[in-house]
């Protein structure tokens, strides 16, 4: 008897039924009861929604570097905290979302999640127009941005239900990589949108700075129409697969040691990737730019100019490496990623107590190559989990590891506000070295006990 991804039996020889909102006799491992058209359509719509989700998650990282310019008067520590809060809330929300795919189904999960993104968008739209908005209100709004990143732990397992194992590396790599581009998109287009009146809305006054006017609120409101479109597409075109699992059934992932070890791997790759992506602009400003010891010197780098590059590189690599993971396995790429992270984090640490702003290119190149290796690891880990874990546990494990990994922006933000940045980079390099050893022994070496 054939089974669905969650272990629900299907009748031998039964035909796939695609009418209605729920697919009947769906089994991706059997060509007779799988529809590539439905699978790829689901991937496209949910990935479009995920791009917007990651724009919301990193909205604060695009806005925070401009807040003092428009009259907010926040300390460096407060700015790090603002950029860290979406990471905290994202991790907590992912711990909820990881259980929702078999409860809600794909259609409602993506549709209602898309509408939730409107809450932080409208909140920041109004908040930045008043420089007297309190720091605690800004903290609450930063917390709500975690809704965007939190939905990842529901989207990814849900998408996994639609694809056979042989294509999951490609499908999940595309969804995660292209979805992650939202982190780069908001950091790239945010500063551009802030430079002019948007949609002909001339009745909204710009925020005033010493060097001219800014429309910081544009970064928050621009994506509202696209988010509404995502919700409409989800409710009208997506379908559900007959996957059901109780809360008790889903928590058995915690008895599998690979759940915990793969969580370490994902913290190494996505935790560091998301954390340093969120703090990259502020880190540049505080080390080499306008809030550093070099403040007042000419031609200093601006964090907003470079912040988008890290998530852009990591996201594109993650999307492009899926087919390579399908061909060679994910474990070897996770191991290569770990070694690369050790080297590049140590390299970057050498430039975090600079004596001259001319050292900035060395730091920048180290960080960009670090993001490259993180992207490889993000693709590798998501290929590993469906291969080394039982079918019904794989989706929950993906959701859980994604939840823990998404705390990266929070912990890295707090660490950077509490200690010397170079010390923190060396700690991260040591952690990556430990994870690389574990990955090699258990997953990547020849005759490893759990190759994936």
TrEMBL record:
Its main location: membrane. It comes from the Bacteria. Pfam families: MFS_1. Residues 41-447 form the Major facilitator superfamily (MFS) profile domain. One of its GO terms (cellular component) is plasma membrane. The chain crosses the membrane at residues 43-64, 79-97, 109-127, 133-156, 177-203, 215-238, 259-284, 304-321, 328-350, 362-382, 394-417, 423-443. It is found in: Cell membrane. Keywords: Membrane, Nitrate assimilation, Transmembrane, Transmembrane helix. PROSITE patterns: MFS. One of its GO terms (molecular function) is nitrate transmembrane transporter activity. It is a multi-pass membrane protein. GO terms for biological process: nitrate assimilation. PANTHER family: HIGH-AFFINITY NITRATE TRANSPORTER 2.3. Belongs to the major facilitator superfamily. Nitrate/nitrite porter (TC 2.A.1.8) family. This is Nitrate transporter. It comes from Propionibacterium freudenreichii subsp. freudenreichii.
């Amino acid at each position: 008897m054939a089974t669905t991804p969650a272990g629900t039996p299907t009748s031998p020889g039964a035909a796939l039924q695609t009418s209605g909102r729920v697919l009947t006799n769906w089994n991706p491992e059997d060509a007779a009861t799988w529809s590539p058209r439905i699978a790829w359509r689901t991937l496209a719509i949910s990935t479009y929604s995920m791009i917007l989700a990651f724009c919301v998650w990193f909205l604060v990282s695009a806005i925070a570097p401009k807040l003092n310019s428009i009259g907010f008067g926040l300390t460096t520590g407060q700015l790090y905290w603002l950029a860290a809060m979406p990471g905290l809330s994202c991790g907590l929300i992912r711990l909820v979302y990881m259980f929702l795919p078999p409860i809600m189904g794909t259609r409602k999960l993506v549709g209602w999640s898309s509408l939730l993104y409107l809450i932080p968008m409208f909140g920041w739209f109004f908040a930045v127009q008043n420089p007297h908005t309190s720091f605690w209100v800004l903290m609450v709004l930063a917390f709500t941005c975690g809704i965007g990143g939190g939905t990842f732990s529901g989207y990814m397992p849900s998408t996994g239900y639609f694809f056979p194992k042989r294509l999951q590396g490609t499908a999940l790599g595309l969804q995660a990589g292209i979805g992650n581009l939202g982190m780069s998109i908001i950091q790239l287009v945010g500063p551009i949108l802030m430079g002019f009146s948007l949609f002909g809305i001339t009745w909204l006054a710009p925020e005033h700075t010493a060097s001219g006017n800014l429309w910081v609120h544009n970064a928050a409101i621009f994506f509202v129409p696209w988010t509404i479109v995502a919700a409409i597409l989800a409710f009208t075109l997506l379908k559900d697969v007959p996957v059901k699992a109780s809360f008790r059934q889903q928590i058995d992932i915690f008895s599998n040691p690979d759940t915990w070890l793969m969580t370490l791997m994902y913290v190494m790759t996505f935790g560091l990737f998301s954390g340093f992506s969120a703090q990259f602009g502020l880190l540049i400003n505080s080390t080499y730019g306008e809030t550093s010891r070099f403040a007042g010197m000419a031609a200093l780098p601006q964090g907003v100019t470079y912040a988008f590059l890290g998530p852009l590189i990591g996201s594109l690599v993650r999307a492009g490496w899926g087919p390579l993971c399908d061909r060679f396995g994910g474990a070897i790429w996770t191991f290569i990623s770990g070694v690369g992270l050790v080297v590049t984090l140590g390299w970057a640490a050498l430039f975090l107590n600079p004596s001259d702003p001319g050292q900035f290119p060395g730091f920048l190149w180290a960080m960009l190559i670090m993001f490259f290796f993180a992207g490889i690891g993000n693709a590798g880990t998501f290929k590993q989990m469906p291969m080394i874990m039982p079918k019904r546990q794989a989706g929950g494990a993906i959701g859980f590891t994604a939840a823990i990994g998404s705390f990266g922006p929070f912990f890295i933000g707090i660490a950077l506000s509490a200690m010397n940045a170079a010390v923190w980079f060396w700690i991260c390099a040591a952690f990556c070295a430990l994870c690389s050893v574990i990955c090699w022994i258990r997953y990547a070496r020849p005759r490893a006990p759990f190759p994936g």
